[in-house]
Amino acid sequence: MEIDPATHDGSLYRTLTGTVIPRPIGWVSTTSPEGIDNLAPYSFFNAVSTEPPIVMFAPGLRPGRPEGLTDSARNVEETEEFVVNVVTGEFAGAMNETSATLASTDSEFDHAGLGRTASTKVDPPRVEGIDAAYECELHEMRRVGGSHVVTGEVVYVHLDDALLDSEGKVDVNEVDAVGRLAGSYYDAVGNRFRMERPD
Ligand SMILES: Cc1cc2nc3c(=O)[nH]c(=O)nc-3n(C[C@H](O)[C@H](O)[C@H](O)COP(=O)(O)O)c2cc1C
Q1: 197: in domain
Q2: Is 145 left (phi over 0), alpha (psi -120 to 50) or beta?
Q3: How many domains does the chain have?
Q4: Which of 70, 74, 148, 187 to mutate to test the pocket of ligand 1 (most atoms within 8 A of CB)?
Q5: What's the pTM?
Q6: The CATH number of the domain where 145 resides is what?
Q7: In this model, does residue 81 exceed pLDDT 90?
């Protein structure tokens, strides 16, 4: 099959989300100006810079919402802060619960029965018991096609000591990250293998 987006009738959503896999999931907590803690998963998520540390997530435009913004996007635009929680196996079900469409006056933390742990440098809390979380200040929010790309500078990092090796570095074998495939398919990180890079 060949697809030319210029003449293609349908959406490329399934093609892109079915082949750009597995995608890490940024589980984004924000706090609205009214003080409601919001939590939602975004698999259009990644790290984009290490010096300074910057991560991104991409909320798609939502027709019918003011400026097409999801609650996460609106909260970030208004408060310029968010926290990215790394989704691990034990939180997969709760993460899915938080993708429910709730009124912006309701908190997904409460909906999914999740506790909050106060952040150190930003207002939005992280998920209680999460292994890794990044506190972020808004770097830029830019409209890109049918989404916004939100980039945030990491201003504080929380890592469970159980993730660390004897040198204090993250041991990737200890990170039970969950990735998004397409539709209702997810991927646990298994079958890790090694390859040394050529010089
Ligand atoms: C695993 C997973 C990944 C998702 N990734 C995205 C994404 O990258 N962009 C997006 O706009 N919506 C994504 N969604 C849908 C949002 O999480 C969902 O619409 C949510 O209600 C948005 O919440 P908010 O309005 O509180 O920000 C994803 C849902 C799931 C379950």
Answers
A1: no
A2: left
A3: 1
A4: 70
A5: 0.97
A6: 2.30.110.10
A7: yes
For 9-46, write each residue's pLDDT tens digit.
Answer: 899 999 999 999 999 999 999 999 999 999 999 999 99
194 in a structural domain: no
Structural domain boundaries enclosing 36 = 23-183
Structure letter (DSSP) for residue 1? -
Do residues 151 and 64 lie in contact, with contact meaning Cβ atoms separated by under 8 Å? no
The Å distance, Cα 63 to ligand 1 centre, comes to: 14
Q: Classify residue 9: in a domain, yes or no.
A: no
Residue 12 lies in a domain: no
**Hey, what are 196's tokens?**
């040394």
- The two tokens of residue 112 are 């999914």
In the chain, what is the straight-line distance between the N-terminal and C-terminal CA atoms, in Å? 38
* CB-based pocket (< 6 A), ligand 1: 25, 38, 40-44, 58-60, 70-72, 96, 99, 101, 180
- Substitution site in 34, 42, 44 for ligand 1 pocket (most atoms within 8 Å of beta carbon): 42
